[in-house]
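Students often ask why we bother encoding 3D structure as a string. The short answer is that it lets us treat folding as translation between two languages. Here is a chain of 328 residues written in the first language.
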Amino acid sequence: MSSICGLPTASRLPGCVELRGLVGSPEESQIHIRAEYDFHARVHMMVGGAWDCPISLLTATQSPAMSDANSVRIIETIALGLNTLWRTLQISGHLICGQDCNLTDDDGGATTTTSPSCACSCPIVDEIYNSGNLTASFAYDLMDSTGLWSMIDTLCDWCLDYNETSGKYEFSGTMTGSTQEEELTILFTLLTCHPGHVSQMGTPLAGPNDPLFWPIHGAFERVIDYLRLTGNTTHDCAVVDSCTSSAENRKIRWDYDDDPLCVPMLVNGTQQIGQGWHDILPFSGFLGDESSHDYSNEELWQLFDPLNPRLTYIYDSFDWEHCHEEEE
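And here it is in the second language, the structure alphabet:
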């Protein structure tokens, strides 16, 4: 396993427990969440890792306020999703990364440290922190306004509690307003504002350079194909009535269309890219298709039907024998 910002990864890789949760999800959005956060993001960081982080997680777990077993577990679990948190903060506009990245020395050779032109930071947070005025209250509000609290809650459903009285998130097992609570909040604010040197496997675009990228991602399609072949998706039902969800006839709904927040993006003023059943995605020309139009989610779903004879590949099995052995 790798280390993440100085903290060795002690967690196990996702396995049969996570697989059962994925297969048992009742809706497409839940399948996506479990695949993305129980498997995908965690595996990328566990295998790839990050180093040279300005904020050391190892040092944090050795501090008096965060050295207890509960805090260490929270820190490591959230660290496994740091790539997602960094992306969330960058999308919000607070995390700014240099666009003139140069990792060569004056002689043209590769350097071993990240040059200033490659460093990312949150200018507003840094200014307040350097003046000695960074408070837990400010850190909380920043994490709230940028969606970091919500993302952490998605990454780890046991790491946070929501206080109905105060209307705020709290780290599980900590006292409201305690030094421990405040230091954890400031820690994750500074950590998400200062990514270190992230491995190729730990990033969304460079990941394919790692050979492990390919079997990991193929595994997700294998699960979806398994669900489709067992008739567990509403969009594979020939008769509408047979798609009714029930305890005996569990079906997975493509529920993105039910979400009012699921609004497609407009590209060039017309094309819609989104998660809706009829939304368009920027893909075309698969399997020799000569049409230049981009596929909708519906068309891609039909194209990658595991029973489509045009597919150039099949999975040799849909049996996870090691999971059966664990049950025995």
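Translate back mentally: Residues 28-48 form the longest helix (21 residues). Keep this in mind for the problem set.
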